[in-house]
Amino acid sequence: MSMRIDACFENARKSGKTVLIPFVTAGDPLPALTVAVMHRLVEGGADLIELGIPFSDPMADGPVIQASSERAIERGVDLEQVLSWVRQFRDNDAVTPIVLMGYMNPIERFGVSRFSQAAHASGVDGLLMVDCPPEEMTELQDSLSARDIDIIRLVAPTTSETRCRMITRHAKGFVYYVSFKGTTGAGSLDTKALARPIAALKKLTSVPVVVGFGIKDSRSARAVAEYADGVVIGSALVDRLASAGTDQQVLDAALEFLAAIRSALDQGVR
């Protein structure tokens, strides 16, 4: 169990805040800026950071995040580099939880045991695996749990109630609800339709429920916050960073983009 993730959501609950979780791809738009961007996101109001591990076939991701992975891979970014950036981030931030998001292939190539040890040593708090169902996660889960790293469970609109019960039974950290069928950055989010599935999830688990996919701006983030304990914003942020110009403009964009979302969420403090 990650103490940082639990503390993050507990502090938010006590203050009536919605946890804000930005997603960025490690190494994009430039490897040398990754750690600085992470710090700027915290300055902008991030409560937890989801850091994407670049992968050549990110099947759950839409074109914006796919392109960011391609750019990072072209610049030589690999899992070892990602872990080193988390370690550098921890030099100046021992509080903000870091959840890695990725696919099994890079971890299997790295080695499950070696990855778990290195992730713990670097200061990783959680891992969200898109392509590894619970039935195939035993070795990885046991290895990470022994080092207090949470496996973040995913639930989709197509997940049956029986499977939701099975998934939430082992949930730690938080449950990630995928807001609609499709890839990241695609589709139109119907926030009102989230009320029923999120309420159903909260009856099955005591861990927080966050929503990702389709949250593009302050308006959609605030609408989702009516139902969820946390919101994840990824493609819109990744696109904004990619379109920034100089290094300083990238850092400014990270801060300004997230600060606007944070302000919108805080205006709706529960």
Question: Could you describe the 3D structure shown?
Answer:
This protein has 270 residues and is α/β, with parallel strands linked by helices. The protein has a single domain, classed as Alpha-Beta Barrel (TIM Barrel). 48% of the residues lie in helices and 14% in strands. It has 12 helices and 9 strands. The chain has helices at 3-15, 34-43, 63-74, 79-90, 104-110, 112-122, 138-145, 161-169, 195-204, 218-224, 235-243, 247-267; strands at 19-25, 49-52, 98-102, 126-129, 150-151, 153-155, 175-178, 209-212, 230-233. Strands 5-4-3-2-1-9-8-7-6 form a 9-stranded parallel sheet. Helix 9 links the parallel strand 7 (175-178) and strand 8 (209-212). Helix 4 (79-90) runs parallel beside helix 6 (112-122) and helix 6 (112-122) packs parallel to helix 7. The longest helix is centred in the C-terminal third of the chain and has 21 residues, at 247-267. It is globular and about 45 Å long. The model is unreliable at 182-186 (pLDDT under 50).
Blueprint of the fold:
Elements: H1 3-15, E1 19-25, H2 34-43, E2 49-52, H3 63-74, H4 79-90, E3 98-102, H5 104-110, H6 112-122, E4 126-129, H7 138-145, E5 150-151, E6 153-155, H8 161-169, E7 175-178, H9 195-204, E8 209-212, H10 218-224, E9 230-233, H11 235-243, H12 247-267
Parallel strand pairs: 1-2, 1-9, 2-3, 3-4, 4-5, 6-7, 7-8, 8-9
Helix pairs in contact: 2-4, 2-12, 4-6, 6-7, 10-12, 11-12
Rg estimate, integer Å: 17 Å
Label the CATH architecture.
Alpha-Beta Barrel
Helix content: 40-55%
> What structural class results from the helix and strand content?
alpha/beta
Could you report the average pLDDT, rounded to the nearest whole number?
92
What is the CA-CA span between the terminal residues? Answer: 27 Å
- The domain tally reads 1
- From the spread of the alpha carbons, the general shape counts as globular
